[in-house]
């Protein structure tokens, strides 16, 4: 019979519950005392039949679950979807949805370091400017200091020697903004695309 992935996933959840429930109904082994039957059973044979039946039912449910799960895995590996302009198999999309936390951690690291380094450079250079102003005031006086050109050799030399400069080989702001956009677009679309695919895609499983 054919069924949609959506229905198959629902049946998997039901089978998981039924497997657990079936195994709890009857022990597979017990004991009797003297000529009395196994506790909670009218006869020992009733217990034996029930244990065998429960065991077989559990095996049948597990087999059914394995068949459906295998069919879903195979389908996910071969069915293609498009998310935010990129092509994935369903399996790849599911994996990226699971592992995207690493991309999010990378994004946060880049944003955090960019902000911290920018702030640190600004603080250093503000201090350099204050120190330079004090030096100029000592050399030229308060009034004349204001007329000193920024291109003055002393000013330029002092700045070159003391100012901090950002070293940014990755062009970090552009890089993290692109990564953030890619993550946001994927997360916005992935659930809807996978849900649609699961509804439309069918697998074949035995009755």
Word description of this protein:
By secondary structure, the chain is mostly helical. It has 2 domains: 2-78; 99-188. Helix content is 73%, strand content 7%. It has helices at 5-25, 44-78, 90-145, 153-162, 172-200, and strands spanning 2-4, 80-83, 86-89, 202-204. It has a two-stranded antiparallel ribbon with strand order 1-4. Strands 2-3 form a two-stranded antiparallel sheet. Strand 2 (80-83) and strand 3 (86-89) form a beta hairpin. The chain is elongated. The mean pLDDT is 93.
Provide mean pLDDT, rounded: 93
Kindly state the percentage of residues in helix.
over 70%
> Would you count the extended β strands for me?
4
Parts with pLDDT < 50 across at least 5 consecutive residues: none
Number of domains: 2
Q: What fraction of the residues are assigned to beta strands by DSSP?
A: 5-15%
Summarize the biggest pleated sheet. Answer: 2 strands, antiparallel
Which strand order does the major sheet show? 1-4
What general outline do the C-alpha atoms trace?
A: elongated
Cα-based radius of gyration, to the nearest Å: 35 Å
Distance between the termini: 6 Å
> Number of helix segments?
5
Helix/strand-derived category reads: mainly alpha
Along the chain, the helix and strand elements come as: EHHEEHHHE
Condensed summary:
By secondary structure, the protein is mostly helical. The protein has helices at residues 5-25, 44-78, 90-145, 153-162, 172-200; strands spanning 2-4, 80-83, 86-89, 202-204.
């Amino acid at each position: 019979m054919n069924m949609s992935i959506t229905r198959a996933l629902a049946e998997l959840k039901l089978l998981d519950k039924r497997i657990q429930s079936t195994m709890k109904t009857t022990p597979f082994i017990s004991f009797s005392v003297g000529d009395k039957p196994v506790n909670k059973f009218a006869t020992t044979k009733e217990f034996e039949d029930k244990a065998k039946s429960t065991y077989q039912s559990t095996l049948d449910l597990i087999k059914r679950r394995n068949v459906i799960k295998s069919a879903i895995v195979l389908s996910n590996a071969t069915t293609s979807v498009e998310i935010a302009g990129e092509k994935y198999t369903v399996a790849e999309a599911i994996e990226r949805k699971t592992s995207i936390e690493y991309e999010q951690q990378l994004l946060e690291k880049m944003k955090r370091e960019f902000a911290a380094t920018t702030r640190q450079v600004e603080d250093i250079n503000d201090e350099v400017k204050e120190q330079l102003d004090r030096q100029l005031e000592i050399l030229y006086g308060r009034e004349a200091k204001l007329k000193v050109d920024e291109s003055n050799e002393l000013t330029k030399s002092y700045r070159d020697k003391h100012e901090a400069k950002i070293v940014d080989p990755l062009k970090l702001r552009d890089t993290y903004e692109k990564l953030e956009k890619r993550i946001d677009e994927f997360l916005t679309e992935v659930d809807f695309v996978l849900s649609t695919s699961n509804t439309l895609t069918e697998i074949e499983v035995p009755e």
